[in-house]
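Hello,

Our lab assistant flagged a job as stuck in the queue for most of the afternoon. It eventually completed. Since we weren't sure the result was trustworthy after the delay, we are filing this so someone can double-check. Below is the sequence as submitted and the structure that was eventually returned. Let us know if re-running is recommended.
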Amino acid sequence: MYPFEYYIQFYERVDRLHIAIYLHLDPQTVTVYKRSFPNTIFHNREEFLHVYYEIEPYFHQKQIVMSKEDLHFLNTAFSSLPLTLPTVRKVKVADVAHFIQGLTLNELTPKELLLLQLLDGKRYASYLKRELYEAYRMDSDYALYRLESLGYLVSDDLAFSLFRLPYKEWVALLEAVQNRRKDEPRERVIEELLKTIDQDKLWQLVGDPYIRLTPKGKAMAEGAPQLLDFHNHLFRYEYHLSIDEYFILSQREPSYTPVEVMKLLIVNQNKDRLDRFDWKTIFQDHTDGQIPEAYISSQFAQILLKYTGGRNADDWDDSGTEADDDLDSIARFYDILFQSKEEKKGLDQEPDETTELRRIIQQKKMQPNSDLSERHEKDDRLAERRKEHERLRRMVVHPAASTRRRPSFITWRLFLLSFLLSAITSLLLLYIWFTWLV
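-- returned structure --
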């Protein structure tokens, strides 16, 4: 089994929250997520959900490593919104900042490398943004901005976009600007258009831009060709494989083909799902055995909403908790509801009237219902009589049935007698005719 570990770090700089996530598989460590947000996201639930949607795959059923301060920060943030803490396999407490010191980390994440390969000379269309967001939970607009700021690509090259336009769109653009030189070399016409037509108008006619990789971007994209194999393979869809784990495992096992690496991930994924971590244990360890009050109130509110017909649980539980968590949720519900029952025995005892009523109901349930049993016996006797009458009816032949058979037998005898008489008459006539001839 491959023990993938996600080192997660939160830190603040100049009124911005920075989130950095590193994937470690001994002996390699790669950066898989790095982004900053305004501190105001913790005051707006919708903004935080947008951020959490991007980072949730790095928590769900993963082994994570965080510092004590970041664990406390995470718990406070989730409790104040409120949200259910993510479902993880294991939590290890360690100093992440100390761990990454001295490491030579990659500048681009595996998802950004894939984006470079997908956009090489292609149009940055809305359908591609939607596909990347649904498949990898990647904000491609931010990734494009970051790649362009780092000098890996260019997205505002109007001449390149005009040159890459399909022929039909190119002809439609020339007709829109009243240019009839569609049969001339495109480079010459583009040069003229850039001089005579306003660029904003040309961009409106072009629509989504075409992306041009710089030499630096081309070299980076060519260094990880196996990512396209992963992106286009069926296993990614069917087993919900992680592109980050695929990337680091393919670097650790360079002799394996992309399909073999994905099969290793599938086996490893099935083994990983056997374990599960309870957040209460880590809070007990760091709060002298007391679970934080904010955590309890958050969990109580979540379970009440889920099991009392209130708001849909999916609107609250954005951590991707699966259906098999229901029993644990019910158990937590009763733990929270009745955790102080032993201390409040005097207040929680039932009144005498309620106890007596329950006893009477229980006795009533235990007493047999005589009227009902007599009715059942009468129905059984009636059914037996009906069965007996049916057997007798089948044994006795009805008189009408016998009278209906006699006319049929007499008819057959009359028919045979008439046939014989006609035959004798015919023979007699033949004999007379033959004698007359002689």
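-- support follow-up --
The delay was a queue issue, not a problem with the job. The result is valid. Confidence is low (pLDDT under 50) at residues 286-298, 307-324, 337-351, 396-406. The chain has 23 helices and seven strands.
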